[in-house]
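Q: What would this chain look like folded?
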Amino acid sequence: MIDLPILNQPETAAPARPRKPDWLRVKLPVGPEYAAVRKLVDEHKLHTICESGNCPNMGECWGAGTATFMILGNICTRSCSFCAVATGRPTELDLDEPRRVAEAIALMKVKHAVLTSVNRDELKDRGASVWRETVVLTKQLSPGTTIETLIPDVKANWGALETMISGGQEVISHNMETVGSLYRLVRPQGRYDRSLEQIRRTKLAGHRTKSGIMLGLGEQPDELYQAMDDLVANGLDILTLGQYLQPTKRHLAVAEFITPDQFAHYREEGLKRGLKYVESGPLVRSSYHAERHVNVPV
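A: My prediction, written as structure tokens:
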């Protein structure tokens, strides 16, 4: 007996991507302070994560004198499933970068600078020497500028961590990104316990500590509460909570859009559990209101 194809059957439709709710709509950046920074960035061809990451808060942050810069190139040795940064083996290490970044921050008259980077696992010191020199030179050229460094996972290279955090920055951040149960999915080359240990060591060195978690990846409330408890137990001061948004169709899909009321509830939960400051909202990103975090008691 010959099996004949069944004709005229409807194609199975691909699952529709969830529509963004109204609360994720972003206002266009405006204001004289924003315009001044915009002009400098364009004239001097400066690079900020604010632009390359299409951050929804760019106008507000630039208006407040805050900008975020990425150092150590744009190729990451990790392949996190939420991140649109290119993955591969970096081929360059620009030792003059600290000077150029410090000069850019001075030129832009940035009041609060946030520095971040890709992972450079192939480097013996994970890029720590560049990290430290960038902070030191920025402080020399702009002594009135406060600095947050959003540092990567050093893969338990605690000597590299010590160098990274010794430049004189006011806030040291390392993002957990998600709850423990989702680490293999979201950060396959990371480890939940190792990131907690990095935060613990940073706090023991006497620094103001900060981390961020994305919501809407499929985490359960109890898992988020456990992560908060773990972070408090390891010395975290400041936590940011924001909505995960899928950067491309190749990345993890959004499992859920968290409502503003839920974010407000999570903020109260974090404070009740011992965090000193919680920034929580759908559009919150790691650098959102970062200039306020330098005033959190150590």
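The chain is about 35% helix and 15% strand.
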